[in-house]
């Protein structure tokens, strides 16, 4: 009896969760794939739409600003993910495996900076990049994002490298590998899930961020988040068109989350559970 | 006598050099972008910007700081709004996610798939999330008004985001929608570490569901729950994207949270000095909150 009651609660919860997540997403998909007139009838009279209309998606994809934003977001997120993995993996390895003086202090510095809110540094970051002549460039956004994500990347990879058994590395060293070679040839392949998690995580954070690109760009380097936030202010009545933009903007991170979900969950929940 | 360098010592020196060269790239990024700019912010908070391009500033002493605490009529309301926003998100979010996590903490087919499904709201960019809900809550053709009206729950369409009474709670609702599935995942990971024997023992001793939750699960989950609460509090204290997209702080500043206020002062009013002082106040609050977080993590035990 007790078992069946628990099962019932379980399945009701699952169904509610499917509606909880699927409802808003389903509505977004629907309103990007029907005409504005049908959208109004759906919202007002709950009248179901009659068929699929691709015009909104086509219109979004032929908008110069939208595609530029999409392109900038792809470039910025890819480069920021790459830099985070490169700089994060070597530092995470050093903290996990290399003995050097003041290690604890440097690690603490990294962890403390992780808590500094972006808003507390956005004015100097703006002035800094403007001073370097990098205002409104993709590079400025990439560097800002990496600086922001790197403490987390180091922390996450540190916890991954700590789990790699020291024996494999020692065996490689005995076989005549240098430290760096042992790291690249032996440790990195074992820590692949961690590297993936960091890459995906950094990509998603850069893709979704608003504050840095909002302040650091005006036209050429605008990201998709900025484009959409502007559209909301100016073109809110173009429901179908805006919804199509929103749908296209969430596809890359959501697809990544689904494909790499398991790595991400392992990585992100690691901190919550104390081993 | 020839003093030979001991091999151990030689090893250590090169090991130290090796370590530092590995952490250098990360330190440069953090040092340049975070530490340098946070320090610059502190200087700016004692200045007034007379011209932005080129940058001309004037020392004004503690005037900006004085203004925050004694002259700014918006500061206390903003702080109150932010506290409300974070507190409701933490309390409601925790209750919901704990309930869901407890219900899901069982063996069933499709467990892994459901978990991946649960990270979708977290993966959605918050700007997009803000747009989706702004559209659904729209006063003209939004689906929420339509559904509630046809169910007979409201007599006329409500302007959820444009009305003083409903705007802030609507934003809180949207934030909770995005955060709860992720909080559930964290709690679920914690629940799975509760040893089954402990619960069996409680059951053998005649404990009912509530007693075994209260006396076995809850104490075991203390760290995870505190972690989830503090993370959610800090993150929602920094809420910006959703507010920026949905209300920009309106109507009548009722949804003006801290981040939004700092942004408005800094980049709409181009008041870098006062903006920096406000941002610093925010950073200090967050830092205090983070100390609690660090204490929970007990980083000292890692080495």
What's the structural domain tally of chain B?
Answer: 2
- CATH level-two architecture of the largest domain in chain B: Orthogonal Bundle
Total strands of chain B: the figure is 2
Shape of chain B: globular
- The counted number of beta strands of chain A is 0
Level-1 CATH class name of the largest domain in chain A: Mainly Alpha
Percentage of residues assigned to helices of chain A: over 70%
Structural class of chain A: mainly alpha
- How many strands, which pairing sense, and closed or not: the largest β-sheet of chain B? 2 strands, antiparallel
Q: What's the alpha carbon Rg of chain A, rounded to whole Å? A: 23 Å
**What is the first-to-last residue Cα distance of chain B?**
40 Å
Beta-strand percent range of chain A: under 5%
Q: Give the CATH topology of the largest domain in chain A.
A: MetI-like fold
Describe the structure.
The complex is a heterodimer of chains A (about 280) and B (about 300). Chain A is mainly alpha-helical. Chain A contains 14 helices and no strands. Chain A has helices spanning about 1-30, 35-45, 55-60, 65-95, 105-115, 120-130, 140-165, 165-175, 180-190, 190-210, 210-215, 225-235, 240-260, 260-270. In chain A, helix 1 (about 1-30) packs across helix 13, helix 3 packs across helix 13 and helix 4 packs antiparallel against helix 10. Chain A is globular. The two termini of chain A are about 35 Å apart. The model of chain A has no long low-confidence stretch (mean pLDDT about 90). Chain B is mostly helical and about 300 residues long. Chain B folds into 2 domains: about 5-60, no CATH class; about 65-300, MetI-like (MetI-like fold, Orthogonal Bundle), CATH 1.10.3720. Helices cover about 70% and strands about 5% of the residues of chain B. Chain B has 14 helices and 2 strands. In chain B, strands 1-2 form a two-stranded antiparallel ribbon. In chain B, helix 8 packs antiparallel against helix 11. Chains A and B meet through helix 1, helix 2, helix 4, helix 5 and helix 6 of A and helix 1, helix 3, helix 4, helix 5 and helix 6 of B.
